[in-house]
């Protein structure tokens, strides 16, 4: 039997403590456990503190297994507390240890608040992804947004649009393509991945009339990688890549910048999108939303993305086990 999935608590002032029991109710047959302070759970949550991840496999499906991690004080919904920052970080590190030791089959992370971690504990990483890559030995990683409808990978992420042409190098794009190709095989069980690659400019440059990066950078790289046997299509015009007939021709799309990738998937699967980190030696998924400070504790939080993230983590764990 595959080990249960570790679900980190994320920011205690956000909606994570509401989402975890909702996800448990939606996925009664999927074994996972929540790591956090039981005092932060919403009153009325049915839970049981466990001594080890394996105990999560034996609990009733209506009970949230909790691997307790004591925080410094209660949660204040909607307002992060600086004294919690060190424990939010410690929970992530603890979950990684459990996955790396085989006690958990995958890691699913609930949202953190980067500024709160920086202010409260001097957190030196832009976000979850970079910290996880550091814990794994500073391995190269890429961010994939995935759903049953579409998988996208942005080559550059949180960068000003004016900086993208400078940052988009052949070495970077090659690394993104190779990590995506390997991840589709290892984590999604796709033996021969088909990858669509967008151009940078409108109409993929239209033969140089609207930009030359497709001619000078993207196309030569794709030609070289295709000669190695990778199934790559492009550079393609981004405005025609995401309709249903186009999506049927590839397993993942690599885009050149943040919005080029995230607009289509958030249009097609706003509530079900999952953040997947490819390149790690362990599986990591996350819901594709933030801490939800504005709705925390109001009963408005939806668990759709977390449910999708846990279910995807389970499928990825099954794929790796093969």
UniProtKB/TrEMBL annotation:
InterPro entries for the chain: PdxA, PdxA_fam
Main localization, broad class: cytoplasm
This protein's UniProt keywords: Cobalt, Cytoplasm, Magnesium, Metal-binding, NAD, NADP, Oxidoreductase, Pyridoxine biosynthesis, Zinc
Pathway in which this enzyme or protein is active: Cofactor biosynthesis; pyridoxine 5'-phosphate biosynthesis; pyridoxine 5'-phosphate from D-erythrose 4-phosphate: step 4/5
Residues reported to bind substrate: 128-129, 266, 275, 284
GO biological process terms on file: pyridoxal phosphate biosynthetic process; pyridoxine biosynthetic process
Binding site for a divalent metal cation: 158, 203, 258
EC numbers, comma separated: 1.1.1.262
Keyword NADP: yes
Cofactor: Zn(2+); Mg(2+); Co(2+)
Cofactor note: Binds 1 divalent metal cation per subunit. Can use ions such as Zn(2+), Mg(2+) or Co(2+).
Reaction it catalyzes: 4-(phosphooxy)-L-threonine + NAD(+) = 3-amino-2-oxopropyl phosphate + CO2 + NADH
Localisation: Cytoplasm
GO CC annotation: cytoplasm
Keyword NADP listed: yes
Any GO molecular function: 4-hydroxythreonine-4-phosphate dehydrogenase activity
Family recorded in the similarity comment: Belongs to the PdxA family.
Annotated function: Catalyzes the NAD(P)-dependent oxidation of 4-(phosphooxy)-L-threonine (HTP) into 2-amino-3-oxo-4-(phosphooxy)butyric acid which spontaneously decarboxylates to form 3-amino-2-oxopropyl phosphate (AHAP).
Further remark: The active site is located at the dimer interface.
Oligomeric and partner information: Homodimer.
Protein name, UniProt field: 4-hydroxythreonine-4-phosphate dehydrogenase
Organism: Stagnihabitans tardus
Taxonomy of the source species: Bacteria, Pseudomonadati, Pseudomonadota, Alphaproteobacteria, Rhodobacterales
